[in-house]
Design goal:
Elements: H1 3-27, E1 42-43, E2 49-55, E3 64-71, E4 76-81, E5 86-92, E6 94-98, E7 108-112, E8 116-119, E9 125-128, E10 134-141, E11 147-148
Antiparallel strand pairs: 1-2, 2-3, 3-10, 4-9, 4-11, 5-8, 5-10, 6-7, 6-9
Length: 151
């Protein structure tokens, strides 16, 4: 092998890594600096509280999204499912969660502020501000939807 061929053999792995790194860096999208997000709440159709979309589109495949939900005292999100896994953090209050097709105070699990839980895709559940107002945040990877449980 000539001197050039040996040098090319040594450069190829490093050169390939450099090209892959540059392509990956160029492919990154999103903010290039710290950006504050204005949180704008909209009333929930049930009238039980309000919600805000913090990041990401929920209808796009592979897109990370985060929503914040504020429920008034006694407010409830009726039994439903999602096609994706949800990652939930309770920010304030105590969130009562049922995992059945009916909301019943004796069938809830309570998550106080600071709690984190994972709701697997397809699991029927409801969210309830049984003990007073509550604010929680959910994240996931789209596409997603709220699929009501038929009674």
């Amino acid at each position: 092998m000539s001197g050039y061929g040996k040098a090319a053999g040594w450069l190829l792995p490093g050169g390939l890594a450099l090209v892959v790194g540059l392509v990956a860096a160029a492919a990154q999208t999103g903010p290039k600096a710290l950006q504050a997000v204005t949180i704008t709440y909209a009333p929930m159709s049930s009238g039980s509280g309000e919600s805000a979309q913090l990041s990401g589109p929920q209808d796009q495949k592979g897109a990370f999204y985060t929503s914040r939900i504020h429920l008034r005292p006694g407010g409830q999100v009726a039994p439903h499912t999602h096609p994706d896994t949800r990652y939930t953090t309770v920010l304030s209050g105590t969130l009562s969660v049922c995992t059945s097709d009916r909301a019943a105070a004796d069938a809830v699990r309570k998550f106080p502020a600071g709690s984190f839980f994972i709701m697997p895709a397809g699991v029927v559940h409801c969210s309830w501000a049984l003990d007073g107002e509550v604010t929680y945040q959910e994240s996931g990877i789209g596409p997603t939807a709220v699929i009501p449980v038929k009674k």
